[in-house]
Amino acid sequence: MTLRADRVVLSTGIEAEPGNEAVSQLLKLPLTEEGFFLEAHVKLRPVDFAADGVYLCGLAHSPRAIDETIAQAQAAAVRAVALLAKKELTATPIIATVNPRLCSACGVCVEVCPYNARILEPDVPYAQVIDVLCQGCGACVVACPNKASQQKGFEFLQISDMVDAALETEKFATEAQRAQRI
Q1: How far is CA 26 from its chain centroid?
Q2: CA-to-CA distance for 50 and 134, rounded, in angstroms?
Q3: What is the pTM of this model?
Q4: How far apart, in Å, do the first and last CA atoms of the chain sit?
């Protein structure tokens, strides 16, 4: 096959920055298979990560044209300014807590926390939660061998009461169905 072209335009191949892996581990940010950073949601949050306050644009995201890079950079700047313009930030209400009496400071919760929201201080005999970093994922609650970690809004007694209420509702519904048949 022979092609007669007026022009041949070659594009330079673009690879992800080799340092992305280290940044990804440091900030707990996901990467694509190619090594570029992955946004929270392609359509709904194209410049956001799952971690609040970290934004994405340009070649950190993927190979793209200059006009796309500029548009994405402007979107990331707007998101950052909107966050910085707030006088006060509200942490997520569903966060983990620690019962100091049950905690043995084993460090399991610190190891499993994907947001680095758990710390063990040398002079404190229990694990602590950094509220603004906690995203309420519950990984620490599941991993805690002593059940010292609880998730606000999902304490054992609350869940137990919800299960009891659901069973009680089911019991009344079953009795009502029986009464209708008679």
Answers
A1: 14
A2: 12
A3: 0.51
A4: 85
- What is the C-alpha separation between 51 and 23, in angstroms, rounded? 13
Give the tokens for residue 151: 């998730």
pLDDT digits (tens, 9 = 90+) for 130-178: 887 888 888 999 999 998 998 887 666 766 777 888 888 776 666 667 6
Instruction: Tell me, rounded to whole angstroms, the distance of Cα 72 from its chain centroid.
Output: 21
Residue 155 structure tokens: 């304490």
Q: Which residue has the tokens 């007694």?
A: 157
